[in-house]
Amino acid sequence: MQSSASCLACMGKGVLTSRMGARRFFLHQFQINQENTVSLSLAKWIPGKYRQIVYAVAAFLLFDLGVLVLNFYTSYQISEDAVSINLAGRQRMLSQRMTKSLLAMQSDALAGEPQDAALEELRTTVALFDTSFRGFESGGEVKGGDGTPVPLVAVASPAGRAILAKARAVWDPYLAALQPVLRGDASWETRLPAAVAYGRANNVKLLGLMNDLTSHLEREASAKASRLRLIQTAGIALALLNFAFILVHFLRQLRESDQVIEAAQQETQEILATVKEGLFLLGPDLRIGTQVSASLPGILGERARPGTDFFEVLDERVPATALQAARDYARLLFGDRVKESLMGDLNPLSLMEMTQTNDRGEPQTHFLSIHFNQVRVGGRVSHLLVTVQDVSEQVRLERALAAADARTRSETEALLKVLTTDSASLLGFLDQARQTLLRINTTLKNHNSDERYDGLINGIFRQIHTLKGDAAMLGLDLFEAQAHEFERLLIALREQPDLRGNDLVAIPLKLDAFLDRLATVRDIAERLTSSRVQHTPAVLAGKRFAQLGKRIAADHGKAVELAVELDKLNALDPCAQTTVSEIAVQLLRNAVVHGIETPQQRTQLNKPAQGNVHIRLHAHDNGEFELCVRDDGSGLSPARIRETLLASGRYTVEQLDQWDHKQLIMRIFEPGFSTVTTGDRDAGHGVGLDVVKQKIARLGARLSIATRPERFTEFSIRFTVPA
Amino acid sequence: MRNTPEANAARQDLTRVRLMVVDDSSVIRNRIARIAGNGLLNTHIVGLARNGLEAVRLCAQYQPDLVTLDLTMPEMDGIDCVDALVKLKPDIRVLVVSALSDKVTALEAIKRGANGFLFKPFTDEQLVQALKELSQ
User: Fold this and answer.
1) Which residue of B has its CA nearest to A334?
2) How many CA atoms lie within 13 A of A639 on its CB side?
3) Cα angle, residue A347 at apex, residues A343 and A353 outer, rounded to 5°
4) Which of A289, A340, A469, A600 lies at 20 to 30 Å from A405 by C-alpha?
5) Partners of residue B111 in chain A, C-beta under 8 Å
6) Residue A9: its pLDDT value, please?
7) Does the model's ipTM exceed the 0.85 cut?
8) DSSP collapsed to 3 states, A493-533
9) For the domain A421-531, what is the CATH code?
10) Interface contact B101-A348, CB threshold 8 A
11) What is the pLDDT of residues A410-464, one digit of tens each?
């Protein structure tokens, strides 16, 4: 029963392997999906694969930073240039004001009016002009339009320097002429006309030079500003290019990886839509995953949907204990501790029988096989891949094969039984049966189609029934069964209401099969009777003992001459024969292993190197049988038995002291007793003589032991058998 | 450490998986011991126990890494034995070796801490494979 169950499981697996391709592929697909998802979500942590994007973004930031710095620089430069241009413009104005103040002073002097206000204005104007002039030449702080000091950068360009040099040539004499007036020397009124004259002569020239300076500075500033703008534009253009690269390149990469994922998902979908098995992933919460194969609801019913508890789906179809075991099994697979490969045989759902109603509402038995495989992500079990298969067809096939096998076996047994029937009765039966069957055949052939069929069938039935009785009488089960089959066919025909000639075709077919088997058995039986050699139990036992004795002696380095006299064994019933043989085997083992000494020991004891063991079965006149096993070995030593018992810890010294030698010797029949320290296949396990004791009890026999140290041991077992 | 053959052997023994066989049948015990000791596996036998009590005693004494365990035994059965072994040595690996009719008990043993199941009768290859799996 168990072997057929395990065969069934094997067979299920066998069929599975042919379809395993799809399952393994699915598992592979799933892992691709998992990998993609995992690697995308971890992108920012894995610079290796995404180094390009990191570089590109860094470059973008760098360009932006450059443009920003330039911006700062530009705006600083522009504010600097604005100061210079402003101040240059002011110089233009100051040159005019200076001349105007000089002229005002001259007209005031002519009119005899005080010139203090004009002088003060001239002083301020000259001071401001001169400071600013020096500022343009060599840089420094200059008073701005609102009176606060502003930094002025020296003019660096050669053209600017040239204008300044020309202006200096005009200004220095002008300033020298003005100095006495400004200082208010005693003779300043006399010096005024000279200053006014210089002013008039050079006023326009100075104005022109200051104008040139202003224009020059404006041109310079504008050139600088456009240069900076160009650089800025280039920086921004680079940054934009970089951004465009990032966009194009990485969008393409993303699209490609999306395509891989989509293709994998597409393939998974196709597999799930195509496979005959129910396939899905089971989460740690034991719920069905989001994707299930299309065939799953067909196999497990409509409740098998994503998100539902898988074991609740099975609830009504699987016994509660098996369901609990299955839950436990699945949970255990989620642990990393257990090995999936060492768990498969424990799967409670590897084969389950369930009844479902078909389209016509009839109940139908199905066999389902559910397998669980661990799916590992990053070394840990994340899901179980569940495969649900309808294996009804395989199971039916397997059962049909098992039934056919059983039938063949029972027929073989029946045939063996036929062949052990005594040959004379068997051959007699075979002849008689053949004649009966041939007679029936003739009757069938000669049957007139006008006559009714019931008479014919009844006639055949009677003959087959007699044949069946004969077979049963002789214990020929094989033929009895075949005749019985024949009878059943005839009964079926007899009960058919509208019997036709064609319906009778089955009868000659049965006749042929029956005749064939009779011929086969006859052939075998004849061959066996001509070559059968009689092996009596005594002969067989004799051979067996000789082989066993040789083997044990060889294993233990003993030399033993074995004499076996077991002729009387034939007089016992088979049951007693077995028991006596078993006792003799144990005593033979005991004698060779424990009794007979090694050839060296024997030589030292002045004994022949080869030991003797004698096994004999006597039949006494009073109807008693006696089995004797005698060896000329070391004999039983009460002292050694006492040591062994003491060492076993089962008895105390006091207990042992109370026993005499005979009582000590009888302890060798206790379970677990052994004086040999190392165990092998013959002795030393503490099992042996206690078995002998049990068997002696079964025979209802009496045991006696005779022994003399260093001389012999003889076990004698006397028993009677019922007449 | 000296480089004598004995010292080398001792060092090698330290890296080997220490195996204890627990079964009340001497046939099974000897068979597993023979297969595990045939050199194909990196195991060496540190104990042969006939029942659960003996297994627990030997476990405390010899600290095996790996145990093959029968479920139905006298004195102390397999389930109690798993409990005791895991308590004694939490990192112990236990291979339940039992008849397939003991499925429910085997599952219970695995819930209690055993790591795998091999059903009797097994072939040499099946046992070697199972021991290899659990030796890793």
Assistant:
1) B111
2) 2
3) 165
4) A469
5) 328, 332
6) 34
7) no
8) HHHCCCCCHHHHHHHHHHHHHHHHHHHHHHHHHHHHHHHCC
9) 1.20.120.160
10) no
11) 778 777 877 777 777 788 888 889 999 999 998 888 887 777 787 888 888 888 8
